[in-house]
Structures are given as C-alpha cells and as structure tokens.
From TrEMBL, chain A:
Coiled coil (residue ranges): none
Ribosomal protein among keywords: yes
Subcellular location, record wording: Mitochondrion
UniProt keywords, alphabetically: Mitochondrion, Ribonucleoprotein, Ribosomal protein, Transit peptide
Domain (Small ribosomal subunit protein uS7): residue spans on this chain: 70-225
Record-linked CDD domains: uS7_Mitochondria_Mammalian
Matching PANTHER family: RIBOSOMAL PROTEIN S7
Primary residence: mitochondrion
Annotated organism of origin: Rynchops niger
Name of the featured protein: Small ribosomal subunit protein uS7m
UniProt xrefs under Pfam families: Ribosomal_S7
GO terms for biological process, alphabetical: translation
SUPFAM superfamilies the UniProt entry points to: Ribosomal protein S7
Originating gene: Mrps7
A single cellular component GO annotation: mitochondrial small ribosomal subunit
UniProtKB/TrEMBL annotation, chain B:
Gene Ontology BP annotations: translation
Pfam families per UniProt: Ribosomal_S9
GO cellular component: mitochondrial inner membrane; mitochondrial small ribosomal subunit
PANTHER family listed in its UniProt record: RIBOSOMAL PROTEIN S9, SMALL RIBOSOMAL SUBUNIT PROTEIN US9M
A Gene Ontology molecular function term of the record: RNA binding
Family that this chain belongs to: Belongs to the universal ribosomal protein uS9 family.
Organism of derivation: Rynchops niger
Taxonomic lineage: Eukaryota, Metazoa, Chordata, Craniata, Vertebrata
Record's protein name: Small ribosomal subunit protein uS9m
Amino acid sequence: MAAPSAAGLRRRLQAWLPRLTQVRWSRYNPSFLEPEVNKELYQKPLEELSEEEKEKLELKAVQPIKAAPPSVSCSVFSDPMISKFTNMMMKNGNKVLARSLMAQTLEAIKRKQLEKYHKAPEDEKEAIECNPYVIFHQALKNCQPIIGLSSITRGGKTYQVPVPLKDNRKRFLAMKWLITECRENKNRRTLMPEKLSQELLQAFNNEGPIIKKKHVLHKTAEANRAYAHFRWW
Amino acid sequence: TLRLIYTTTAVQRKNVGASGPEKYTEAFIKKQIEEFNLGKRHLANMMGEDPETFTQEDIDRAIAYLFPSGLFDKQARPIMKHPSEIFPEQRKIQWGEDGRPFHFLFYTGKQSYYSLMHETYEKLLNVQKYQDQLPAQDLPPQKEKKNLAGSRWLTKIELEEMLLEKLSDNDYLRFIQLLQKLMTLPCGDMEEKYIQKFTKEVPAQLQKVVIEPLKYDERGVAFSTSEGIRKTAKATATVYDNGTGKITVNGIDVLHYFPVLQDREQLLFPFQFLDRVGKHDMICTVSGGGRSAQAGAIRLASAKALRSFVTEKEVEFMRQAGLLTIDPRVKERKKPGQEGARRKFTWKKR
C-alpha cells in the first residue's frame, strides 16, 4: 500500500496542531519588581545616595514589588550562594535534610580549621582562615572554570568548541562538580558533610579532584583552540 | 529594547473590536441606548428612588434584588448595563457603495495603526525642523524624566482597544519607541498633549492602603492585629508592645510548633528587618496549608501588624523588601492529557 502523500499529511498535521500558548509565565504581573532584602541599603541616609540611586528609589515607590521567597531572610546567616548550593544538594524536595547537611558541613569545616589553628605555631596562626563562609566562597571561586566546551555539529562531525562561559554557568558548574564528586567518589561509610568539608578545604587550597577537573577542562579547551572559529555568538 | 517574557491570562482575551465590520447598525445601538435609559427610569420608579440620581451601582443592586440568581459565574447572572459596555465598539464599514475604501491606507491591512505611525512621525519631523531653526542657545534645558514615576505607556491591549485593530508585539514596540524618541527631544514639549493621549497615570502604591491605629488593652499595652495568607494557609497575628520576644502559635510555643530553622527565620524576618527583635510579643493562630505556607502566612500577618508601630518610611522599606505583598503563587492545576501540571506522559515511539 502506497504511503499517503507528504503534502496531504503535512496539511492534516497543520490543521491538528493547536494554537501555541505561552509556556513560561508567572503568577505575578510583569510589572512587579524583585524585592531588596538587605536592610543596610535602607538605613543609608538620603544625602549619601547618588543621582542614579535616587531615581531608582523614586521609580520603586510607584512599582509593585513581589513577595520575598521563604528561602530569603535579612539575617546575617542567610547567604544566596549557600541557599543555591543547598537547593542543588536537595533530593526529592527534602529541604530539611539538605539544610542540616549544609550546617553539619560548615560545622565540620570550622572544627577542622580550629584544630589546625590550635596546633599551629604563633607566626602561622594568622594565615589560617577559620570562617567557614569565607572558605566556602573562596573554594567555589577557585573551582569555577573560565572557559567551557560546547558541542557544535558541522558537516556530520561534532566538535568540542571552546566557548566563554557566563557567570551563572560558572557558578553552576563549580557547584555541580562539587556535589557529584562528593556523591560518587566517596567510601560508602563516610558521611556527606565529612566528604564535602574535605573537598571544600582542598579546593580552598587549590588542590583536589575538582581543581584537577577544572584544569583538564582548560587544557582541552586550549587544545581545541583551532575550532574556536566555529562559534557564532 | 523590551522583550515580553511573561504574559498573564489577560493576554488571551479576544479583541472583538478588530474582528470585522460592525454587526450592529448605528440606529440599532441608538435604540438600545434609549431603551436602557427608559428602563433605568422605570427601575428607579419601581424601587422608590429618584430617577434623576440613579447610578449604575444602584441599578446593579436593584437587579440583584429583583432577580436573585444562584449561578456561580458572575457573568451568567442578569445584568443591566449601558449598551456601550455590552455591545463592544466595532469598526464601521470602511468602504463606500462603489466598493472604494475611504482611508488611503486601507490596503495595508492595519489602516489605523499605520495612520497613527504616520501622524506620530510627522510630529517628530516637525519638532526636529523647529529645533533646527532655533539657534543653539534657545534650546530649552534637558527636562527631568517626569514620565518615569507616576505615568506609564498604554499597554498593547489598551492600544488595540483604542485603534479597534489587532496589533503584533513588534508593531506595538515600534510605536512605543517612536513615542519615546519624541519625548526625549528637547522641544518635545510642544507635542505633550499628543503624547499624553498614550500615557496613563500610575498612583503611588502606598496611597491605596490605610494603616490602622494602635489599640490598647486592659493593661495599657499597645497591640495591633492583622491577617495574612500564603497558598492555603490563613493566619491572624496580634503583636503586643513592651514584650520579651516570645511567640505563641495556636497556643503552642514557636520552638515546638516550628521545629525547622527556616520557618522560625521567616517568623523573625519582619522583626529583624525593623531591628525590633526582643521588643514585641506575638500571639498568632494559623490553619491550613503546610509548614512553610503557615510560616509565610504568619510572616505576612506580623509584617502587616507591625505597620501600626512604625513610621511611614519604614513601611515603605518593608514593602520594598517584599514583606507586605501577598504571595500569589499557588499550586498549579493538573491538566488533562498530562500527568501533572507540567509533566507530560512518557513518550513512547510506538
């Protein structure tokens, strides 16, 4: 039996396709602005503000503002990077567990650093960093790749083309590598906070498997430099 | 340039004005208006009110009284409104008896849009010509951007209603860009009346809300009550002055009711923002929702209650921190043909 003609089939498919509707929409009206939670910004007196900021304030006075999400708070303990990392560690929506693991990790880092601090001689004591938040931020910064690879298909073959990465993408890759490293390459008996604190301290000192992965990525990007002209953006 | 990323369901409304030439003749609509006015006077007479001062609200109340309806859809109940609201405005027939169109841009398809662009561009050229004529010193100084706060451009839907024609997003953006260009020219003040036709006033947000004064109970302690909602949770909070920072929820202490740190952080958020952590006592009741929704509802209720204790400026700061807005995000419904709200069924090739 001959297959139905291509044109007839296409016309029938066109008639059946429903009208396209918007898929990415939000419950807020598009005129709503993001909330600004940092209370220090509000305590600055009017005279210190620059022209731009005064204009922005005036604009904000007329625009409606979205509600602050439940993961954000104005206390010193809420950090956007840490919240992002906790959300990435979360499995099946178990935020309670993810948050407790994060707290245990930070505690473990603090304990290890304090141990080192008390054992070190006087002159080295100042060089040891004890604040777990500072260690976390610095470790993430050290893990971020500068350039990434993207697969582009030309003439049937797929090439890995070196491509500059956006800030969001760098942060995401660093966090993703940390988490996958801790989940896969650990002994069955070690707990997640212990392994994470180990990895973070290693990354803080620019050593460890994640930094190695970053260097490997940089080297392959350097090796594939010849294909850089395939990038069109 | 602007880029419309999100839209609301309002966008999917039909533009009836652009659907085609009028289905109702002018004479018909005039007759409807006469009948409406007559009916209004009869109704006023029936209700025993003065026919001269019978407003639309009175008509609605009278109809709801005379024709009580238990239907759920408000638009299905009996209504009596002015014909201009019921019969939507539609374009008149744009060609004469010989078939020749009246407007010179008829064959473009969007005649009112293109004629509007034509007019605006003409005004722009006039302003530029006037500007070139003046010597350099006579140029009026750079006027402050008064349009940023207090007024906004008409939305695409409003413009469509004004022109009675369908517009595409690109058309609308081009028009707004032209208007902005006209506005930024130094001599643009000449055309201010024309530009004002396409702007709308936006009232400052705070003026809509009335802050209640503080109440005093028997001991002389000031307190204030308010409510908050989040998802399906409803909460009422009473914030007392001269307190030690104790919080009681549904008769249970906050440490026992909210074992999770995140919820307690949310409860403390408004107090921490205003630097009043140990100064107020709070007693609240909450029902419905889950643990995070209840925490969010109490947060909103306490922020609203704290408004009465605090200066107007701080209320504005609270609003800009997002403490006083009701979170409209609710659970999205499951759609037929899909497994969940967004998740589709597993695609099987055969």
